[in-house]
Amino acid sequence: MFTKVIFLVIFFAVMIGVGIYSRKHATNVNDFVLGGRSVGPWLTAFAYGTSYFSAVVFVGYAGQFGYKYGLSATWIGIGNAIIGSLLAWVILGSRTRSMSKALSAATMPDFFGKRYDSNGLKIAASAISFIFLIPYTASVYNGLSRLFGMAFDIPYAVCVIAMAALTGIYVIMGGYMATAINDFIQGIIMLIGIVAVIMAVLNGQGGFYEAVRSLSEIESDIPLTMGQKGVFASFFGPDFPNLLGVVVLTSLGTWGLPQMVHKFYAIRDEKAIRYGTIISTLFAMVVSGGCYYLGGFARLFDTPAIYTEDGSIIYDAIIPSILSTLPDLLIGIVIVLVLSASMSTLSSLVLTSSSTLTLDLIMGNLIKDMDEKKQLLYMRILLVFFIVISVIIALDPPTFIAQLMGISWGALAGAFLAPFMYGLYWKGVTKAAVWASFACGVLLTVSNMFLKFIASPINAGAIVMLAGLVIVPVVSLLTPKMEKGKVDKIFTCLEEK
To answer: CB–CB of 111/92 below 8 Å?
Structure first.
């Protein structure tokens, strides 16, 4: 216990110290929200990766999908690295930076408002962002607190409130630069921690070959496989079609998430984007690939702790159950690993939400005249407000982690991905097409929550995203085009060297 507490005290001290150091980089709105658009490749790449992977992935997704699909769950990590990181940076990075700078857009809703010349779209995007980032934030608290309960036997509510308070302190003080520097430190911890944990867990099972052999002897309980042995140690696993749904949601989803795309707004220049692409991809391969690979051995740790009284599986308890077998020193490393992953995601979420509400909803709509000082004050107040709401939800979460995240990612990426990506490349996207994408993403996700016409919220999220990619070009071809002169002027920024 002493070792674990020491790790935490050092970790918390560093986070607060970075917040204090970064205060000088948060004196105006541009610095607070975007770090002055001068953030280098290492900080940006690590900020992207650490915002991507949190306790939701490590505790919720790795446990659930590792148990369901065995070692083939590693495909999710590979998809995250190639689609969610490499292709996202290549396809979105440079154009997002150039166009957002030319439009003076600080947030994704601001981008929609200026790119499509519509204040209504900006307000709608702001409302969607705020509403659906809350369940994602709650899911991060949920996963983090489960691990803390395992390691320290601390009540769930205490964990949630403490994490929220600490995150709020350093983001309020230092803004984007504080989150970027902390993300870099947290990313290094994540890289070291995931490698150490995998080695320790496999060693406890007699090594890699013995662990795979033991996994291959387990009979499948999935009807599709008719009880055969070996599927959990196989290349494609017991249910590859549903596995693909998870790959799509968790990989393609990042392209339409405001807190992820925001990283491209703040990066320094084209050279930084090239280096950041490589760094971010390698980071995702190690961290995400490692998480799902570890989860693939979940069935070797089949203990009463992962079951409810009626015999159903508590997916969120699987990874904590695996980790509880490790020595105290390694548990301390794991706690800091998951804390790092989660706090970086939390800081990104709360900063995105508060800046979106202030700059896109309140300023110019509810309050006409708002100077720089007032904008910063409102952002900091709303940051606290967002944290409080998400904590209230996290204290009594309506469902398990993966479903919370599936709902959030499905609605946000389903609404935003297609109009954002097409808007960077195609002059022909219309306002009506953007509205149609927003409506599709939100209505399909929300209606599926209640009607359950798609059984898995994960698959529902993936379907909504893919639907948007079809809806936007089809509706654009059938509806009135934007004024040609305005659109041409926006796209001139892409021709600059």
So the answer is: no
